[in-house]
Design goal:
The structure is a homodimer of 159-residue chains. In chain A, a hairpin with a 2-residue loop joins strand 1 and strand 2. Chain A is built from three helices and eight strands; from the N terminus they run E-E-E-E-H-E-E-E-H-E-H. The first copy, chain A, is α+β, with helices and mostly antiparallel strands. At the A-B interface, helix 1, strand 5, strand 8 and helix 3 of A face helix 1, strand 5, strand 8 and helix 3 of B.
Chain lengths: 159, 159
């Protein structure tokens, strides 16, 4: 492991797309430099936890909801997607767990508020990072069930 | 980024499954502690490159072949999957690029040799890391087209 450190490898994170009747759950970020931006619940994977455990933990911390993970949408690792450094994200698709289905989400841990966004009306919203592109991939996924990554997304947008 | 370092986050790698008529390409590792084990071509993602770039680079370095990536099979991040530390892998599924289709793969960069493994005959082989489980997931993927992660795999094996 001596060759691997924060200057040599991207740092892994997770994000989770929670869809409830074509309404997708976003949080508004409190912290600079992303204050006020809408993002999927997510965060850094800690040493000793799996990506899926991190995804479930972050949803719980930021929204108070339990989530069941169903799919991986893609892995986004463009070095410029996050201004803090080279941070890559595995994006899961999940649904609210049965025991949380009648609960209202409560914003916590860096989340100022919760917002359900209709996938038909995303142009009105201000998303952080590359989460708007990821949401577009998700909308495509609903039909194609394919998987995505940053440059697949980019070649699609520009070509 | 000050909070993120090699002791706080898993280190990200990539692996690529290359299938040619139900023969999957493996390399035999030279280096200890995995000497002689069969693994998918792959390796660490470097700062500044995407996961997909790393996958293509590693296939080229280890097999001399160009590969086109088509899908993500899954993200494997069990902390115990690699004895060197907490190392997670995004596993792509690809095919040999048109310009490499008539070339024989040549082992390089840590690969002692190349072996095409028939997916019907995997029990005879000695795989490194969790690559046998990943190969089983891939065989399932060929029918289901679902995505996988370490604990989804594990719950399937044990339950």
């Amino acid at each position: 492991m001596s060759k691997q450190n924060e200057h040599k490898n991207p740092v892994p994170t997770v994000d989770t797309i929670i869809d409830n009747n074509s309404q997708v759950l976003f949080i508004k970020i409190i912290k600079e430099p992303f204050e006020g931006k809408m993002v999927f619940p997510g965060g850094f994977i800690k040493i000793g936890e799996t990506a899926e455990e991190a995804a479930i933990r972050e949803v719980k911390e930021e929204t108070s909801l339990d989530v069941d993970l169903d799919h991986i949408l893609g892995v986004y690792s463009d070095p410029k997607r996050d201004s803090r450094g080279h941070i890559m994200s595995t994006v899961f698709i999940g649904k609210i767990s049965p025991n949380s289905q009648n609960k209202e989400p409560i914003a916590g841990d860096g989340a100022a508020s919760i917002k359900w966004v209709n996938v038909e009306a995303i142009e009105q919203e201000d998303f952080g990072f590359d989460h708007k592109d990821i949401l577009k991939d998700y909308i495509e996924w609903k039909n194609s069930k394919q998987t995505f990554w940053s440059s697949r997304n980019k070649s699609k947008t520009t070509g």
